[in-house]
Amino acid sequence: MYAKAGRVDLARDAFDEAPLRDVFLCNVMLAAYVSRSEVAEARKVFDGMPMRDLVSWNTMIHGYAMRGEVGLAREIFDGTEDRDSFSWSSMISAYAKSRRSKEALELWREMHAASIIPDCITLVSVVSACSDLGALAVGAEVHRFVESNRIELDLKLGTALIDMYAKCGDIESAQRLFDRMPEKDVQTWSSMIIGLANHGLGHESLSLFSKMISEGMKPNGVTFVGVLIACTHVGLVSEGKKYFRSMNEVHGIEPTVEHYGCMVDLLGRSGHVEEARQLIRSMTFEPDTIIWRALLGACRIHKNVEIAEEAMAKLRVLDPLGDGHYVLLSNIYAQANSWEGVAEMRKTIRRDNIQRIPGRSSIEWDEKIHEFVSGDRLHPRSKEIYRVLEEMMDRLKQAGYKPMTGLVLQDIDEQSKERSLAEHSEKLAIAFALLTTPARSTIRITKNLRACEDCHSAMKLISLVYDRKLIVRDRNRFHHFSEGQCSCKDYW
Protein backbone atom coordinates (compact mmCIF):
# COMPACT_ATOMS: atom_id res chain seq x y z
CA MET A 1 0.00 0.00 0.00
CA TYR A 2 2.75 2.44 1.02
CA ALA A 3 4.88 1.59 -2.04
CA LYS A 4 1.98 2.14 -4.42
CA ALA A 5 1.39 5.53 -2.82
CA GLY A 6 5.00 6.46 -3.41
CA ARG A 7 5.93 6.26 0.34
CA VAL A 8 8.90 3.94 -0.08
CA ASP A 9 10.26 4.99 3.35
CA LEU A 10 7.16 3.71 5.16
CA ALA A 11 7.06 0.62 2.94
CA ARG A 12 10.68 -0.04 3.89
CA ASP A 13 9.85 0.21 7.60
CA ALA A 14 7.06 -2.30 7.13
CA PHE A 15 9.40 -4.50 5.13
CA ASP A 16 12.08 -4.44 7.86
CA GLU A 17 9.52 -5.37 10.50
CA ALA A 18 8.11 -8.30 8.51
CA PRO A 19 9.41 -11.45 10.27
CA LEU A 20 9.38 -13.74 7.24
CA ARG A 21 10.00 -11.19 4.50
CA ASP A 22 7.60 -12.99 2.18
CA VAL A 23 8.20 -12.91 -1.58
CA PHE A 24 5.17 -10.75 -2.31
CA LEU A 25 6.28 -7.96 0.03
CA CYS A 26 9.85 -8.15 -1.28
CA ASN A 27 8.61 -7.85 -4.85
CA VAL A 28 6.56 -4.79 -3.92
CA MET A 29 9.71 -3.17 -2.50
CA LEU A 30 11.74 -4.13 -5.59
CA ALA A 31 9.14 -2.60 -7.91
CA ALA A 32 8.95 0.57 -5.79
CA TYR A 33 12.71 1.12 -5.87
CA VAL A 34 12.98 0.31 -9.59
CA SER A 35 10.16 2.74 -10.40
CA ARG A 36 12.22 5.45 -8.64
CA SER A 37 15.42 4.37 -10.46
CA GLU A 38 16.94 3.41 -7.10
CA VAL A 39 18.32 0.16 -8.45
CA ALA A 40 21.13 -0.09 -5.90
CA GLU A 41 18.54 -0.12 -3.11
CA ALA A 42 16.49 -2.67 -5.05
CA ARG A 43 19.58 -4.87 -5.32
CA LYS A 44 20.03 -4.80 -1.52
CA VAL A 45 16.47 -6.06 -1.13
CA PHE A 46 16.99 -8.65 -3.86
CA ASP A 47 20.24 -9.96 -2.34
CA GLY A 48 18.59 -10.23 1.08
CA MET A 49 15.59 -12.22 -0.10
CA PRO A 50 15.52 -15.76 1.33
CA MET A 51 13.29 -16.81 -1.57
CA ARG A 52 12.75 -15.30 -5.02
CA ASP A 53 10.24 -15.94 -7.76
CA LEU A 54 10.30 -15.04 -11.46
CA VAL A 55 8.82 -11.59 -10.72
CA SER A 56 11.82 -10.85 -8.47
CA TRP A 57 14.35 -11.75 -11.16
CA ASN A 58 12.45 -9.93 -13.92
CA THR A 59 12.12 -6.76 -11.85
CA MET A 60 15.89 -6.61 -11.35
CA ILE A 61 16.62 -7.34 -15.02
CA HIS A 62 14.20 -4.59 -16.00
CA GLY A 63 15.65 -2.18 -13.44
CA TYR A 64 19.22 -2.55 -14.68
CA ALA A 65 18.09 -2.53 -18.30
CA MET A 66 16.21 0.76 -17.84
CA ARG A 67 19.38 2.37 -16.44
CA GLY A 68 21.56 1.06 -19.26
CA GLU A 69 23.56 -1.16 -16.89
CA VAL A 70 23.62 -3.99 -19.39
CA GLY A 71 26.34 -6.06 -17.72
CA LEU A 72 24.47 -6.23 -14.42
CA ALA A 73 21.20 -6.95 -16.22
CA ARG A 74 22.90 -9.88 -17.99
CA GLU A 75 24.28 -11.13 -14.68
CA ILE A 76 20.76 -11.34 -13.26
CA PHE A 77 19.40 -12.75 -16.52
CA ASP A 78 21.98 -15.56 -16.52
CA GLY A 79 21.03 -16.40 -12.92
CA THR A 80 17.35 -16.74 -13.78
CA GLU A 81 16.48 -20.42 -14.00
CA ASP A 82 12.95 -20.21 -15.39
CA ARG A 83 12.83 -17.27 -17.83
CA ASP A 84 9.65 -16.06 -19.49
CA SER A 85 9.14 -13.77 -22.48
CA PHE A 86 9.49 -10.68 -20.24
CA SER A 87 12.97 -11.80 -19.12
CA TRP A 88 14.13 -12.24 -22.70
CA SER A 89 12.44 -9.05 -23.89
CA SER A 90 14.03 -6.88 -21.18
CA MET A 91 17.50 -8.23 -21.91
CA ILE A 92 17.22 -7.96 -25.70
CA SER A 93 15.85 -4.41 -25.37
CA ALA A 94 18.75 -3.48 -23.09
CA TYR A 95 21.27 -4.66 -25.68
CA ALA A 96 19.44 -2.93 -28.54
CA LYS A 97 19.17 0.42 -26.70
CA SER A 98 22.87 0.28 -25.78
CA ARG A 99 23.80 -0.32 -29.46
CA ARG A 100 25.16 -3.75 -28.54
CA SER A 101 23.28 -5.09 -31.51
CA LYS A 102 25.31 -8.25 -32.09
CA GLU A 103 24.52 -9.45 -28.58
CA ALA A 104 20.86 -8.56 -29.06
CA LEU A 105 20.67 -10.79 -32.14
CA GLU A 106 22.60 -13.61 -30.47
CA LEU A 107 20.10 -13.56 -27.60
CA TRP A 108 17.21 -13.47 -30.08
CA ARG A 109 18.51 -16.69 -31.66
CA GLU A 110 18.74 -18.31 -28.21
CA MET A 111 15.19 -17.19 -27.41
CA HIS A 112 13.94 -18.53 -30.73
CA ALA A 113 15.73 -21.86 -30.15
CA ALA A 114 14.11 -22.08 -26.68
CA SER A 115 10.66 -21.77 -28.36
CA ILE A 116 9.76 -18.69 -26.32
CA ILE A 117 7.03 -16.72 -28.11
CA PRO A 118 8.12 -13.08 -28.38
CA ASP A 119 5.83 -10.10 -27.97
CA CYS A 120 5.82 -7.03 -30.22
CA ILE A 121 8.19 -5.14 -27.89
CA THR A 122 10.82 -7.88 -28.27
CA LEU A 123 10.38 -7.97 -32.04
CA VAL A 124 10.79 -4.18 -32.31
CA SER A 125 14.06 -4.43 -30.35
CA VAL A 126 15.33 -7.25 -32.59
CA VAL A 127 14.39 -5.36 -35.76
CA SER A 128 16.12 -2.23 -34.41
CA ALA A 129 19.30 -4.24 -33.84
CA CYS A 130 19.08 -5.49 -37.44
CA SER A 131 18.76 -1.87 -38.61
CA ASP A 132 21.88 -0.90 -36.68
CA LEU A 133 23.99 -3.75 -38.07
CA GLY A 134 22.58 -3.85 -41.59
CA ALA A 135 21.47 -7.43 -40.92
CA LEU A 136 18.94 -7.71 -43.73
CA ALA A 137 18.62 -11.52 -43.73
CA VAL A 138 17.85 -11.65 -40.00
CA GLY A 139 15.42 -8.72 -40.28
CA ALA A 140 13.60 -10.37 -43.19
CA GLU A 141 13.50 -13.62 -41.20
CA VAL A 142 11.82 -11.77 -38.31
CA HIS A 143 9.28 -10.34 -40.78
CA ARG A 144 8.52 -13.84 -42.06
CA PHE A 145 8.17 -15.04 -38.46
CA VAL A 146 5.63 -12.28 -37.82
CA GLU A 147 3.62 -13.22 -40.90
CA SER A 148 3.75 -17.00 -40.41
CA ASN A 149 2.67 -16.70 -36.76
CA ARG A 150 -0.04 -14.16 -37.64
CA ILE A 151 1.34 -11.66 -35.16
CA GLU A 152 -0.45 -8.34 -35.44
CA LEU A 153 1.66 -5.83 -37.35
CA ASP A 154 0.95 -2.80 -35.20
CA LEU A 155 2.24 0.69 -35.95
CA LYS A 156 5.46 0.35 -33.94
CA LEU A 157 6.47 -3.00 -35.40
CA GLY A 158 5.43 -2.06 -38.93
CA THR A 159 7.38 1.21 -38.76
CA ALA A 160 10.41 -0.59 -37.29
CA LEU A 161 10.35 -3.08 -40.20
CA ILE A 162 10.10 -0.27 -42.77
CA ASP A 163 13.03 1.46 -41.09
CA MET A 164 14.99 -1.82 -41.03
CA TYR A 165 14.50 -2.54 -44.73
CA ALA A 166 15.48 1.02 -45.63
CA LYS A 167 18.58 1.02 -43.40
CA CYS A 168 19.64 -2.41 -44.64
CA GLY A 169 19.59 -1.24 -48.26
CA ASP A 170 16.36 -2.90 -49.42
CA ILE A 171 14.32 0.22 -50.13
CA GLU A 172 11.98 -1.73 -52.43
CA SER A 173 10.82 -3.99 -49.58
CA ALA A 174 10.44 -0.94 -47.34
CA GLN A 175 8.18 0.67 -49.94
CA ARG A 176 6.10 -2.50 -50.43
CA LEU A 177 5.52 -2.85 -46.69
CA PHE A 178 4.69 0.85 -46.37
CA ASP A 179 2.13 0.59 -49.17
CA ARG A 180 0.48 -2.44 -47.53
CA MET A 181 0.14 -0.97 -44.04
CA PRO A 182 -3.56 -0.21 -43.43
CA GLU A 183 -2.77 2.43 -40.83
CA LYS A 184 0.13 4.87 -40.74
CA ASP A 185 1.15 7.53 -38.25
CA VAL A 186 3.64 10.38 -38.59
CA GLN A 187 6.54 8.08 -37.60
CA THR A 188 5.62 5.63 -40.37
CA TRP A 189 5.50 8.36 -43.01
CA SER A 190 8.69 9.96 -41.71
CA SER A 191 10.61 6.65 -41.76
CA MET A 192 9.71 6.09 -45.40
CA ILE A 193 10.48 9.69 -46.40
CA ILE A 194 13.90 9.52 -44.71
CA GLY A 195 14.57 6.07 -46.18
CA LEU A 196 13.93 7.25 -49.74
CA ALA A 197 16.02 10.39 -49.12
CA ASN A 198 19.01 8.44 -47.81
CA HIS A 199 18.93 6.20 -50.88
CA GLY A 200 19.25 9.25 -53.12
CA LEU A 201 15.61 9.03 -54.23
CA GLY A 202 14.97 12.68 -53.41
CA HIS A 203 12.14 13.28 -55.85
CA GLU A 204 10.29 10.16 -54.66
CA SER A 205 10.81 11.28 -51.05
CA LEU A 206 9.36 14.73 -51.73
CA SER A 207 6.46 13.22 -53.66
CA LEU A 208 5.66 11.02 -50.66
CA PHE A 209 5.78 14.09 -48.40
CA SER A 210 3.23 15.82 -50.65
CA LYS A 211 1.00 12.75 -50.46
CA MET A 212 1.32 12.75 -46.67
CA ILE A 213 0.13 16.37 -46.50
CA SER A 214 -2.72 15.74 -48.95
CA GLU A 215 -3.98 12.89 -46.76
CA GLY A 216 -4.24 15.25 -43.80
CA MET A 217 -1.26 13.93 -41.82
CA LYS A 218 0.56 16.63 -39.83
CA PRO A 219 4.38 16.43 -40.23
CA ASN A 220 6.80 16.85 -37.35
CA GLY A 221 10.44 17.87 -37.02
CA VAL A 222 11.68 14.39 -37.97
CA THR A 223 9.64 14.49 -41.18
CA PHE A 224 11.33 17.73 -42.20
CA VAL A 225 14.77 16.28 -41.54
CA GLY A 226 13.90 13.70 -44.21
CA VAL A 227 12.56 16.37 -46.57
CA LEU A 228 15.71 18.48 -46.25
CA ILE A 229 17.96 15.43 -46.66
CA ALA A 230 16.04 14.62 -49.85
CA CYS A 231 16.74 18.12 -51.18
CA THR A 232 20.40 17.85 -50.18
CA HIS A 233 21.07 14.53 -51.86
CA VAL A 234 19.73 15.68 -55.21
CA GLY A 235 20.83 19.33 -54.98
CA LEU A 236 17.38 20.97 -54.87
CA VAL A 237 18.45 24.29 -53.32
CA SER A 238 15.39 26.47 -54.00
CA GLU A 239 13.03 23.67 -52.96
CA GLY A 240 15.02 23.12 -49.77
CA LYS A 241 14.75 26.82 -48.90
CA LYS A 242 11.00 26.71 -49.52
CA TYR A 243 10.48 23.68 -47.27
CA PHE A 244 12.71 25.20 -44.56
CA ARG A 245 10.64 28.41 -44.52
CA SER A 246 7.39 26.46 -44.51
CA MET A 247 8.30 24.65 -41.31
CA ASN A 248 7.43 27.69 -39.18
CA GLU A 249 5.24 29.67 -41.55
CA VAL A 250 2.92 26.83 -42.60
CA HIS A 251 3.30 24.00 -40.10
CA GLY A 252 4.20 25.85 -36.90
CA ILE A 253 7.41 23.85 -36.36
CA GLU A 254 10.40 25.75 -35.02
CA PRO A 255 13.58 24.65 -36.85
CA THR A 256 16.16 23.02 -34.59
CA VAL A 257 19.92 22.83 -34.91
CA GLU A 258 19.46 19.60 -36.91
CA HIS A 259 17.35 21.39 -39.54
CA TYR A 260 19.89 24.19 -39.79
CA GLY A 261 22.58 21.54 -40.22
CA CYS A 262 20.65 20.10 -43.16
CA MET A 263 20.36 23.56 -44.74
CA VAL A 264 24.08 24.28 -44.28
CA ASP A 265 24.80 20.92 -45.90
CA LEU A 266 22.39 21.64 -48.79
CA LEU A 267 23.78 25.12 -49.48
CA GLY A 268 27.40 24.09 -49.02
CA ARG A 269 27.29 20.99 -51.20
CA SER A 270 25.56 23.00 -53.95
CA GLY A 271 28.41 25.51 -54.03
CA HIS A 272 26.70 28.24 -51.98
CA VAL A 273 29.39 28.07 -49.30
CA GLU A 274 29.29 31.77 -48.42
CA GLU A 275 25.49 31.66 -48.10
CA ALA A 276 25.84 28.66 -45.80
CA ARG A 277 28.26 30.66 -43.64
CA GLN A 278 25.83 33.58 -43.49
CA LEU A 279 23.00 31.23 -42.49
CA ILE A 280 25.10 30.01 -39.56
CA ARG A 281 25.76 33.60 -38.49
CA SER A 282 22.01 34.35 -38.56
CA MET A 283 21.10 31.51 -36.20
CA THR A 284 19.50 32.50 -32.90
CA PHE A 285 21.31 29.69 -31.04
CA GLU A 286 24.89 28.49 -30.97
CA PRO A 287 25.84 26.24 -33.89
CA ASP A 288 27.07 22.82 -32.85
CA THR A 289 29.70 20.42 -34.15
CA ILE A 290 27.37 18.97 -36.81
CA ILE A 291 26.80 22.38 -38.40
CA TRP A 292 30.47 23.37 -38.53
CA ARG A 293 31.42 19.94 -39.82
CA ALA A 294 28.80 20.25 -42.58
CA LEU A 295 30.39 23.56 -43.58
CA LEU A 296 33.86 22.01 -43.49
CA GLY A 297 32.66 19.16 -45.70
CA ALA A 298 31.29 21.67 -48.21
CA CYS A 299 34.68 23.38 -48.25
CA ARG A 300 36.28 20.05 -49.16
CA ILE A 301 33.97 19.66 -52.15
CA HIS A 302 34.49 23.23 -53.36
CA LYS A 303 38.11 23.70 -52.23
CA ASN A 304 37.43 26.76 -50.06
CA VAL A 305 40.42 27.03 -47.72
CA GLU A 306 39.45 30.32 -46.06
CA ILE A 307 36.01 29.23 -44.81
CA ALA A 308 37.40 25.77 -43.99
CA GLU A 309 39.89 27.33 -41.58
CA GLU A 310 37.08 29.33 -39.93
CA ALA A 311 35.00 26.18 -39.48
CA MET A 312 38.01 24.30 -38.14
CA ALA A 313 38.70 27.03 -35.57
CA LYS A 314 35.19 26.48 -34.19
CA LEU A 315 35.51 22.69 -34.27
CA ARG A 316 38.79 22.81 -32.33
CA VAL A 317 36.88 24.46 -29.48
CA LEU A 318 33.71 22.33 -29.68
CA ASP A 319 35.34 18.96 -30.38
CA PRO A 320 39.14 19.23 -30.07
CA LEU A 321 39.71 15.47 -30.35
CA GLY A 322 37.42 14.87 -33.35
CA ASP A 323 39.80 13.14 -35.72
CA GLY A 324 37.59 13.59 -38.79
CA HIS A 325 37.92 17.39 -38.71
CA TYR A 326 41.70 17.22 -39.03
CA VAL A 327 41.53 14.68 -41.84
CA LEU A 328 39.02 16.82 -43.76
CA LEU A 329 41.10 20.00 -43.43
CA SER A 330 44.24 18.10 -44.39
CA ASN A 331 42.47 16.91 -47.56
CA ILE A 332 41.40 20.49 -48.32
CA TYR A 333 44.99 21.69 -47.94
CA ALA A 334 46.21 18.86 -50.18
CA GLN A 335 43.68 19.80 -52.90
CA ALA A 336 44.96 23.38 -52.73
CA ASN A 337 48.61 22.18 -52.89
CA SER A 338 49.17 23.73 -49.47
CA TRP A 339 51.63 21.14 -48.21
CA GLU A 340 52.59 23.32 -45.26
CA GLY A 341 48.97 23.08 -44.11
CA VAL A 342 49.02 19.29 -44.55
CA ALA A 343 52.23 19.09 -42.51
CA GLU A 344 50.69 21.27 -39.79
CA MET A 345 47.65 18.99 -39.54
CA ARG A 346 49.88 15.92 -39.23
CA LYS A 347 51.92 17.68 -36.56
CA THR A 348 48.75 18.64 -34.64
CA ILE A 349 47.41 15.07 -34.79
CA ARG A 350 50.69 13.73 -33.36
CA ARG A 351 51.17 16.52 -30.78
CA ASP A 352 47.63 16.38 -29.39
CA ASN A 353 47.56 12.57 -29.55
CA ILE A 354 44.33 12.62 -31.56
CA GLN A 355 43.15 9.05 -32.01
CA ARG A 356 41.44 8.24 -35.27
CA ILE A 357 38.14 6.39 -34.93
CA PRO A 358 38.73 3.14 -36.81
CA GLY A 359 36.56 2.61 -39.85
CA ARG A 360 34.46 -0.53 -39.47
CA SER A 361 32.71 -2.25 -42.34
CA SER A 362 30.33 -5.14 -41.82
CA ILE A 363 28.74 -7.63 -44.16
CA GLU A 364 26.11 -10.26 -43.47
CA TRP A 365 26.86 -13.81 -44.60
CA ASP A 366 25.86 -17.28 -43.45
CA GLU A 367 23.54 -15.88 -40.74
CA LYS A 368 26.42 -13.92 -39.17
CA ILE A 369 27.70 -10.36 -39.24
CA HIS A 370 31.34 -10.26 -40.36
CA GLU A 371 33.11 -7.05 -39.36
CA PHE A 372 36.38 -5.66 -40.66
CA VAL A 373 38.68 -2.81 -39.67
CA SER A 374 41.55 -1.37 -41.70
CA GLY A 375 44.42 -3.85 -41.94
CA ASP A 376 42.32 -6.50 -40.20
CA ARG A 377 43.88 -9.97 -40.04
CA LEU A 378 41.72 -11.45 -37.29
CA HIS A 379 39.08 -13.05 -39.51
CA PRO A 380 39.42 -16.87 -39.63
CA ARG A 381 39.63 -16.70 -43.46
CA SER A 382 42.08 -13.82 -43.46
CA LYS A 383 44.64 -15.47 -45.76
CA GLU A 384 41.98 -16.17 -48.41
CA ILE A 385 40.57 -12.64 -48.07
CA TYR A 386 43.98 -11.03 -48.64
CA ARG A 387 44.61 -13.27 -51.65
CA VAL A 388 41.32 -12.10 -53.19
CA LEU A 389 42.14 -8.50 -52.18
CA GLU A 390 45.46 -8.65 -54.03
CA GLU A 391 43.77 -10.01 -57.15
CA MET A 392 41.04 -7.37 -56.87
CA MET A 393 43.50 -4.47 -56.61
CA ASP A 394 45.48 -5.77 -59.62
CA ARG A 395 42.30 -5.96 -61.73
CA LEU A 396 41.27 -2.46 -60.66
CA LYS A 397 44.66 -1.00 -61.65
CA GLN A 398 44.37 -2.67 -65.04
CA ALA A 399 40.96 -0.96 -65.39
CA GLY A 400 42.47 2.46 -64.62
CA TYR A 401 42.32 2.75 -60.83
CA LYS A 402 44.89 5.12 -59.33
CA PRO A 403 45.28 5.07 -55.53
CA MET A 404 44.68 8.50 -53.94
CA THR A 405 47.77 8.39 -51.73
CA GLY A 406 47.34 12.05 -50.76
CA LEU A 407 44.54 10.91 -48.44
CA VAL A 408 47.02 9.01 -46.25
CA LEU A 409 48.26 11.33 -43.51
CA GLN A 410 51.05 9.05 -42.29
CA ASP A 411 54.64 9.93 -43.09
CA ILE A 412 55.38 6.76 -45.08
CA ASP A 413 56.54 5.95 -48.63
CA GLU A 414 54.15 5.78 -51.60
CA GLN A 415 54.08 1.99 -51.72
CA SER A 416 53.11 1.82 -48.05
CA LYS A 417 50.41 4.44 -48.65
CA GLU A 418 48.97 2.34 -51.48
CA ARG A 419 48.96 -0.69 -49.19
CA SER A 420 47.22 1.30 -46.46
CA LEU A 421 44.46 2.36 -48.88
CA ALA A 422 44.08 -1.18 -50.23
CA GLU A 423 43.45 -2.47 -46.71
CA HIS A 424 40.61 -0.08 -45.86
CA SER A 425 37.76 -1.86 -44.11
CA GLU A 426 35.25 -1.65 -46.97
CA LYS A 427 37.76 -3.14 -49.45
CA LEU A 428 38.35 -6.05 -47.07
CA ALA A 429 34.58 -6.54 -46.75
CA ILE A 430 34.24 -6.54 -50.54
CA ALA A 431 37.08 -9.06 -50.89
CA PHE A 432 35.29 -11.28 -48.38
CA ALA A 433 32.06 -10.93 -50.39
CA LEU A 434 33.83 -11.85 -53.64
CA LEU A 435 35.23 -14.90 -51.85
CA THR A 436 31.96 -16.12 -50.34
CA THR A 437 28.97 -14.94 -52.38
CA PRO A 438 27.69 -16.10 -55.78
CA ALA A 439 28.86 -14.30 -58.92
CA ARG A 440 26.72 -11.29 -59.93
CA SER A 441 24.89 -11.25 -56.58
CA THR A 442 24.42 -7.93 -54.79
CA ILE A 443 27.01 -7.00 -52.15
CA ARG A 444 25.65 -5.07 -49.13
CA ILE A 445 28.04 -3.31 -46.77
CA THR A 446 27.50 -1.11 -43.72
CA LYS A 447 30.23 1.34 -42.63
CA ASN A 448 30.38 3.45 -39.48
CA LEU A 449 32.17 6.41 -41.14
CA ARG A 450 31.86 8.37 -44.36
CA ALA A 451 33.26 6.47 -47.36
CA CYS A 452 36.60 7.97 -48.41
CA GLU A 453 37.17 9.21 -51.96
CA ASP A 454 39.60 6.38 -52.76
CA CYS A 455 37.18 3.63 -51.71
CA HIS A 456 34.32 5.37 -53.49
CA SER A 457 36.36 5.47 -56.71
CA ALA A 458 37.41 1.83 -56.28
CA MET A 459 33.84 0.64 -55.63
CA LYS A 460 32.61 2.23 -58.86
CA LEU A 461 35.22 0.24 -60.76
CA ILE A 462 34.51 -2.96 -58.80
CA SER A 463 30.86 -2.79 -59.86
CA LEU A 464 32.01 -2.59 -63.48
CA VAL A 465 34.92 -5.07 -63.44
CA TYR A 466 33.09 -7.75 -61.46
CA ASP A 467 29.60 -7.05 -62.84
CA ARG A 468 28.28 -6.66 -59.30
CA LYS A 469 25.83 -4.28 -57.71
CA LEU A 470 27.13 -2.86 -54.44
CA ILE A 471 24.88 -1.19 -51.87
CA VAL A 472 26.98 0.62 -49.28
CA ARG A 473 25.59 2.43 -46.25
CA ASP A 474 28.04 4.92 -44.79
CA ARG A 475 27.51 7.52 -42.07
CA ASN A 476 25.92 9.99 -44.50
CA ARG A 477 23.78 8.02 -46.94
CA PHE A 478 23.41 4.98 -49.20
CA HIS A 479 25.52 4.48 -52.30
CA HIS A 480 24.21 2.17 -55.03
CA PHE A 481 27.13 1.19 -57.29
CA SER A 482 26.34 -0.34 -60.65
CA GLU A 483 28.12 -0.52 -64.04
CA GLY A 484 30.87 1.86 -62.90
CA GLN A 485 28.52 4.55 -61.57
CA CYS A 486 27.21 5.54 -58.15
CA SER A 487 23.70 6.72 -57.35
CA CYS A 488 25.14 9.71 -55.46
CA LYS A 489 26.76 10.99 -58.69
CA ASP A 490 29.90 11.66 -56.63
CA TYR A 491 27.88 14.09 -54.53
CA TRP A 492 28.13 12.88 -50.95
From TrEMBL:
Domain DYW intervals: 400-492
Family indicated by similarity: Belongs to the PPR family. PCMP-H subfamily.
Lineage start: Eukaryota, Viridiplantae, Streptophyta, Embryophyta, Tracheophyta
Spans of repeat PPR: 53-83, 84-118, 154-184, 185-219
InterPro entries listed in its UniProt record: DYW_dom, E2_motif, E_motif, PPR_At4g14850-like_plant, PPR_rpt, TPR-like_helical_dom_sf
Keywords noted in UniProt: Repeat, Transit peptide
Source organism (scientific name): Oryza barthii
Descriptive protein name: DYW domain-containing protein
PANTHER family xrefs: OS07G0636900 PROTEIN, PENTATRICOPEPTIDE REPEAT-CONTAINING PROTEIN
Pfam families, A to Z: DYW_deaminase, E_motif, Eplus_motif, PPR, PPR_2
One GO biological process term: RNA modification
Gene Ontology MF terms: mRNA binding; zinc ion binding
Matches recorded under PROSITE patterns: PPR
